[in-house]
């Protein structure tokens, strides 16, 4: 018979450890500088098994993001995108976790939280961010301009394969038609689906 674990009673089974989250395997950017991460970014590409994204990929709209650093540690993210021809702003606040380069977006209800890791960035050209909601993971490529080099795209595609995603769930966004602002009636505070 197997030896008993500390505090285990005879006849009790050991509970298996919880499955490792896909994001736990992703290393955060060494030397990440939040002030340098601040500013305007353009969503260049995204890899996700999201069924809504797959069904509506022909409707992808140019998406711009502005990052500001709140209280020196949290990320205030404003996402600007069109929906039915109207510019919307979606505001989110990513709170720092214990680990550098890892953040948490608190969502509504059970399972509403989104974990985010700044996986790789040079702060001036591109950033690769990983998001996880439940067991679903997605990876986004941002650029300081709406287009990035093929070398950076290759790096992005390498990173998405490393987390079990593939080219058939990778989408590249339009490079024109961006919104810079939204009027007061088209601002949402909350979560953006991944």
TrEMBL record:
<dbReference type="GO" id="GO:0001848">
    <property type="term" value="F:complement binding"/>
</dbReference>
<dbReference type="GO" id="GO:0006956">
    <property type="term" value="P:complement activation"/>
</dbReference>
<dbReference type="InterPro" id="IPR000566">
    <property type="entry name" value="Lipocln_cytosolic_FA-bd_dom"/>
</dbReference>
<dbReference type="GO" id="GO:0070062">
    <property type="term" value="C:extracellular exosome"/>
</dbReference>
<dbReference type="GO" id="GO:0072562">
    <property type="term" value="C:blood microparticle"/>
</dbReference>
<keyword id="KW-0732">Signal</keyword>
<dbReference type="Pfam" id="PF00061">
    <property type="entry name" value="Lipocalin"/>
</dbReference>
<feature type="region of interest" description="Disordered">
    <location>
        <begin position="1"/>
        <end position="25"/>
    </location>
</feature>
<keyword id="KW-1015">Disulfide bond</keyword>
<dbReference type="InterPro" id="IPR002968">
    <property type="entry name" value="A1-microglobln"/>
</dbReference>
<dbReference type="InterPro" id="IPR022272">
    <property type="entry name" value="Lipocalin_CS"/>
</dbReference>
<dbReference type="InterPro" id="IPR043245">
    <property type="entry name" value="C8G"/>
</dbReference>
<dbReference type="InterPro" id="IPR012674">
    <property type="entry name" value="Calycin"/>
</dbReference>
<feature type="domain" description="Lipocalin/cytosolic fatty-acid binding">
    <location>
        <begin position="38"/>
        <end position="172"/>
    </location>
</feature>
<protein>
    <submittedName>
        <fullName>CO8G protein</fullName>
    </submittedName>
</protein>
<keyword id="KW-0964">Secreted</keyword>
<dbReference type="GO" id="GO:0005579">
    <property type="term" value="C:membrane attack complex"/>
</dbReference>
<comment type="similarity">
    <text>Belongs to the calycin superfamily. Lipocalin family.</text>
</comment>
């Amino acid at each position: 018979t197997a030896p008993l674990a500390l505090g285990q009673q005879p006849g009790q089974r050991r509970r298996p450890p919880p499955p490792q989250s896909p994001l736990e395997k992703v290393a955060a950017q060494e030397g990440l500088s939040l002030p340098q991460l601040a500013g305007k970014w353009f969503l260049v590409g995204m890899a996700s098994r999201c069924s809504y994204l797959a069904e509506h990929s022909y409707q992808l709209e140019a998406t711009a993001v502005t990052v500001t650093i709140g209280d020196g540690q949290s990320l205030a993210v404003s996402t600007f995108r069109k929906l039915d021809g109207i510019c919307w702003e979606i505001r989110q606040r990513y709170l720092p976790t214990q680990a550098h380069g890892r953040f948490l977006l608190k969502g509504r209800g059970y399972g509403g939280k989104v974990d985010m890791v700044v996986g790789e960035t040079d702060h001036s050209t591109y950033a690769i961010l990983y998001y996880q909601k439940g067991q679903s993971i997605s990876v986004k490529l941002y650029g300081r301009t709406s287009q990035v080099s093929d070398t950076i795209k290759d790096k992005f595609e390498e990173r998405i394969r490393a987390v079990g995603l593939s080219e058939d769930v990778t989408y590249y966004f339009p490079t024109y038609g961006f919104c810079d602002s939204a009027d007061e009636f088209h601002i949402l505070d909350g979560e953006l689906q991944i």
